[in-house]
Structures are given as structure tokens and as C-alpha cells.
Amino acid sequence: MKAAIYARKSKLTEKGDSIENQIKLCKDYLSHMSIEEIFIYKDEGFSGKNTDRPGFTQMIEDAKKQKFNILVCYKLDRISRNVADFSALTKDLETLSISFISVNEQFDTSSAMGRAMMYIASVFSQLERETISSRVRDNMYALAEAGKWLGGTPPTGYNTERLKLKDATGKDRSFCILVPIPVELELVKLIYDKYLEVKSMSKVEKYLICNDIKTKNNKNWSLASINSVLTAPVYVKADNKVTQYLKSIGIKVNGKPDGIHGILTYKKRKGKSGSNRVKDTCQWIASVSFHEGIISADKWIKVQEIITLNKDKAPALGSSGEALLSGIIKCSNCDSPMRVAYGKQYATSGRKKYYYMCTLKCKSRKTKCANSNINGADLDALILEELKKLTLDKSTLIEELKKYKHELEAATENLVIKKLNISIDKNEEMVDNLLNNLSLTKDIETATILLNKISHLKTENKALRNKINKLEFQSTPEENALNNLEEIQNTFMDLSTFSSFASVSEKRKLLSSIIHKVYANGDTGKVLIKFKGVEPQ
Predict the structure, then answer these.
(1) In-domain check, residue 319
(2) Is residue 504 a contact partner of residue 322, using CB atoms and an 8 Å limit?
(3) At what angle do helices 504-514 and 376-389 cross, to 10 degrees?
(4) 124 located within any domain
């Protein structure tokens, strides 16, 4: 008989049962059995909320190869704190005729009561995890409402410092606050003053780049980073006027504004950290913090008013009704994107001559890059000719289109629906297992717990199926792109007549489907085309 030992620890700390201690206790348990060989699997620094762990994955693969007959762990929650995952595991082990033993709880799947008690224990294990998660979340919200820094990259002008104190019960507590970096705060003041002077983020960006003024990460300032500084309440000396302004746009402020301290905002973005999706302002948490602001209330509000006014009249840069290479053309000198710029109007057609211009050259007023502008119509025509005669023949082009089409088809598989169906399957498996265990128990309390769990799982599956039904009626951008690509493929079988009848939109779709980037040098006229999946020669 061969056995496997699995050990897991959430964090690399000295607290709790160490990996080594778990393995030792499991070996001690197995020492009383006739075991020929022991396989060790361990995951250190991994949570039990799911089974996405390298050691666990390897263990399952070896189980399928029948490398061991018994799986032993120190405690049930070392395997998983998720009922669905635990149920799926025990189902798999049962299919493979592998017994499962928990040393601490003395559960053994070789008996019906052991299986029933393990399911009940797994329910409480998940409840414990969710309770802890809820407490942590509530604690974070409480810290946010108190204006304490919750972590992440500090804003320009500040660093973080951890303060320690004792609470009312005498326990040691700590939290982080922002502390000023004077040199960076002077730069923030400069950005505010410059914006009030020129009333344009683009002009502020050009000023900073021309004067070689970098961000705290030593990069060129972008419109996004400038906007982040100008709109952040962290810099304002918050008073009642500021809180009234924020309230007018749906943001409620916690704490008492005193005209000295700044405001921190939380819960601004949806999903994972770093996501660009912004929540409605009514869902934000804003709190007067411990750090001092540097921008007066009147100046900060004035800046917000100008930004709001400019949003309605800001032109869209870098787009064109005629240019084919927008989004895929880059400057070969500095690797910056090139945008569309317009020249004089043609007297005969009424159209404007357009060029491709390096964005860094434009922003820096030629101090960082001086690549000459490139005639847009000439470059577009050159690229189309290259497609015809130099790099791709017709058959290769069609193959590239088919390949890209398959990529889009793969993208249209709704991952959300997939995950929902997996959850439904796991819940159904668990319901079957719980029903089996229900038939084996005579204890009323145990039966009540099992029935409640079964009812909960069925309700959850009903909600999941409703979600799937709603999602299946929604068309995705990828599906629309796929339909457009079908039209392109059907229309452009004869590439020799491509440029004579295709619309600008159709040409642009075709180019972006097979070209990764175009690098252009306006001084030398040299052009490099990088096709998708093809290395340049």
C-alpha cells in the first residue's frame, strides 16, 4: 500500500502549523499502517479558498496515475476551505478507489459516517473562511472610513509610514498614513499652476516633456498621469466647499474637513486591482485623512471645473476618416506611437492632406524626437502594395485571415458562462453526495444540516442558470468583429482588385488583422512591416 501526504500553509510565517509539522504528524499516523512508500505534496503560501496550487495539482495528476492508495492530511481545511472543491475532490478519490484520511479530525472515507462527517466539517470550514474574509473586508472599510492608507503605490508627493498604537483593550495596533516628499509636492504644485495657466492637459504634458520633468518612476508624463494628479482629492486642503463639491458629483465624504488635511478615496474601481473600470461615484468611499493637503480648496475646485468644461469640447486625436494605419504605426526613432495630423486642404476634392506624426516629437516640440512627418496617403498606398507583391501572396493572406478568424472564434467562447457551468456541475455533484450521506444518517441535527445545504445549493444553481440565460442573449464585441471578418474574407479573395473597391473601414480592418506594427522613418523613408506571427527579415 502506498500513501500520499498533502500539507498546505497560507502564509510563510512562523504562526500556525508549519508544513514540516503537518508532514511529521501525518507520518506518525501512517507509521501504524503497512505503508510501502510515501509521496509528499506541499503548498506553502497558498490559500485554501480554491485548488489552484502547484503541489495540489501534481497530487491530483499522480492520483489519476494510481501512484498511491491513501491520501492523508493533517486537517480537513488543509485540502480546501471551499465546499464545492472538497466535494469534487472526494468524488474523484472515490472513483479512483483512493481513501482519504484527516489526522486531526479522525475522518476516514472508508466508512459512511466518516464521509458524512467530512462533508459537514467542510461546510463549516468554508463558513469559517467566509467569516474571516467578511471580517477582513469590514475592517478594511472601517480603516478607509477613518482615512487610513490601505496600501498600494502612494500618490506622487507622498510616501507611507506605519504608526503603532494600543487600542482600548490594550492590544497593539498599527496602520499606515501618507507622509510628504517635499520635492515631489513642489512638482504637484507646478502641475496645478501650469494647468490653471494654460487650461489644457496636453499643453501641460508638452511643458513637462520639453523640460525633461519625469514622474516619480522616472518616466515621461502622460495625459493619464497628469489627469490623475489634477483630479485627486488627496492634494486638496479639504474644507466644506470641497465636500459640497464632491457631494454634488455623488461622493460622500467621511470625517470633518478642517481646511488642512487631504482626502483619500477608496473603492473606485471594479474588479481586481489595476482595472480601468470605474464604479459610480456614489459607491466610492472618501475620507478626510491624516496627511496635510497642499492645494487650496478654491484652486482645486477651479481645476475640476476647467477639466469638466474641457471634456465636452476636447477633440479626438489620432483618428482619421482616411488614414489606414492608426493604432499600428510607430516611430522607428523613439518607438512612440504616431498619430494623424492634417495639412492644407485640396482645392479639387475639398479633403485635407494628412500625415503621420510622432507623438513624442509633437509633445516635446522636437526636443526628444525630430522624426519628419510622413505623407499619410503615400505610406498607406505603399503598405497596400507591399501586401500585394512583397511579403504575402494571396494564399498566405487568406491563411492569415483564417488564422485570425479562429483566434476571434476562440475569444467568443464566453469564459463567464464556462465558469458558471463548472460551478453548476460541482454543485450538482455535491448535492448527489449530500443526498447519499443523508440516506445513511439517522441523526436529526445532521440531517437538518444536510437538507439546508442541499436547498442552498439548488437555489444557487437556479440563480447561476438565470445568469447564463441572460448572458447568452448578449452579443460580444468579438462576435461583431468575427462577422466583419467574414465579410472581409469573402470580399477580398482577389487582392489585385482590393484597393480599387474596398472602403477605408474594410482596408483598415484587413491591415489590423494581419499587421502587428509598422515602423516608419520620415527622414530616410525606410518602412518596416511586422506581420502577426512572422518575424521581420
Answers:
(1) no
(2) yes
(3) 60
(4) yes
